[in-house]
Amino acid sequence: MASTIRTIHEQLISKERSAVEITTETLARIEQLEPQLHSFLHVTAESALAQAEAVDAQIAAGEAIVPLAGVPIAIKDNLCTTGIPTTCGSRILENFVPPYESTVTQKLKDAGAVIIGKTNMDEFAMGSSTENSGYGRTCNPWDFDRVPGGSSGGSAAAVAADECAIALGSDTGGSIRQPASLCGVVGMKPTYGLVSRFGLVAYASSLDQIGPLARSVEDAAILLAAIAGYDPKDSTSIKVEIPNYAQNLQPNFRPKAKLRIGIIQETFGSGLDEAVNTAVRAAVEVLQELGAEIQVVSCPRFGYGLPAYYIIAPSEASANLARYDAVKYGVRVEEPENLLDMYKRTRAQGFGTEVKRRIMLGTYALSAGYYDAYYLKAQKVRTLIKQDFDAAFEKVDILISPTSPTTAFTAGEKTDDPLSMYLSDLMTIPVNLAGLPAISVPCGFDRQGLPIGMHLISKVLREDLLLQVAHAYEQATQWHRQQPQLL
Fold it and tell me: Within 13 Å, how many C-alpha atoms sit on residue 141's CB side?
């Protein structure tokens, strides 16, 4: 198995390897794999080596280093980074370099993490396959003909391919968890507001949340603790004490009270691949053997999450993306006839098909005469979905579903059928609408050798319990130890 945060930290402390050596090896692997994989949009070799040298200098001076120091990390390209382009996978932001740093990437720099580059993504995080990027698609490391999921497909693929130890993604409707499932890694969406969104280029502000992608639950826990916490720059940030998530992990989780796990009845219906159904049900049996009490629970409005999301998210996107007007930043068409012509031509050329589709959907839903019929009604449905979750959590501590209804599909298979593509996020979207934390952990493979993910959901701010249960399952199985044979 590739190096974890713990192994890298131990090697640095014992001086078995230096941060520069680790970074150099990582950059060499990226150079070797990228022509085919295309996980990265920008590789920051020079600044990464400088960050690694700073960590080695600390160690040489006898200073203590934190676990993330010297660890290679990739950043989704919708997080602002000074000195590094932030394109959001869109041609409209080609060559845009932000004048400020996002809160999460600043925290990582302060911790000594080595930022090795920015990863590919569906344009403005709108997609489930990373085929909507304005800079070409990313391949799934398990099968280059298949998609890695989206919109954080570049980050998930980079972790799975050992091009970095850990990565950051963002999750609006499943954009961390779904690619984690399709690439066979761990992906976590924290409680809305636990991680600052300052410097995250917004898609849908009431849904977006930044989270970790990693090869193990422990690594996800360490990364989450590093980026979580109150930020006065983010008005939605929650003031809570951040526990040491990794320190609370136990190999065999034995809660003081009986752990109650609920299988969401509505997630095991038609449309679910048989291999996914079998793998997730087998994973539930493992948790039962570990001492959990299993029951089936109903979230009656779960299926309404998809249509509600595709009104709320595009509506917020319509407002958020209005700022790309070719006036302040981003690309601008040459020699426009007038201001209106500049707006129209720049946005027509700069935005891709899916982004245009969602802007138009959102603008329509917010327009006079339709606001009450669509947007307001979708927000009411959102409340009902949250109420279903609240009722379920009165009976159980953790909810379980598949992360994705299918394993990784072939590139191009769903590009001409937007609804089919949207259904890829059927299991994950309701969690974002309710603001809950959730995690995807590897739980098996289908007959083609493609990874399958199990989706665990907890109450608001119970990331500690979520990580403990995910870690207990992970340690009782071997799925997370398997990696794609790329070299």
Answer: 28
Backbone CA torsion sign across 219, 169, 413, 315: positive
Per-residue confidence at 257, pLDDT binned at 50, 70, 90?
low
- Cα-based distances in Å from 130 to 76, 139, 152, 157, 227: 12, 9, 7, 10, 24
CB 471 within 8 A of CB 219: no
Q: How confident is the model at residue 251 (pLDDT cuts 50, 70, 90)?
A: low
Handedness of CA 130, 333, 202, 310 (dihedral sign): negative
With respect to residue 414, please indicate whether it lies within any of the assigned structural domains. no
pLDDT band at residue 330 using 50, 70 and 90 as cut-offs:
confident
DSSP conformation class of 371: I
Strand partners, 43: 117
For the chain, how many structural domains are there in total? 1
Three-state SS at 447: coil
Confidence band of 335 (pLDDT split at 50, 70, 90)? confident
Q: Contact 184/442 with Cβ under 8 angstroms? A: yes
Q: Which of 3, 39, 76, 152 is catalytic?
A: 76
CATH number at residue 211: 3.90.1300.10
Q: Is 304 within a domain?
A: no
Pairing type for strands 72-76 and 166-171 reads parallel
Mean pLDDT in residue range 53-69: 97
Query: Residue 345: CB partners within 8 Å, gap ≥ 6?
Result: 333, 336
Active site residue 76: yes
231 three-state secondary structure: coil
User: Which range marks the domain in which residue 178 is found?
Assistant: 5-250+438-481
CA distance 184 to 442: 5
Task: Tell me, yes or no, if 151 is annotated catalytic.
Answer: yes
Contact of 187 with 177, CB cutoff 8 Å: yes
In a domain, 182, yes or no: yes
CA–CA distance from 436 to each of 139, 255, 315, 319, 385 (Å)?
A: 30, 21, 21, 24, 11
The residue count for the chain: 487
Say which of 39, 128, 151, 152 is annotated catalytic: 151
Q: By percentage, how much of the chain surpasses pLDDT 90? A: 90
Of 159, 162, 70, 158, nearest to 108 by C-alpha is 70
Give buried/exposed letters for 354-370 (b at 16+ CB in 10 A, else e): bbbebbebbbebbeeee
From the candidates 18, 155, 175, 181, which is the catalytic residue?
Answer: 175
Q: Quick check: is 221 in a domain? A: yes
The residues that bridge with 79 in the sheet, in sequence order, are: 200
Residue 1 has pLDDT above 60, yes or no: no
Catalytic residue status for 175: yes
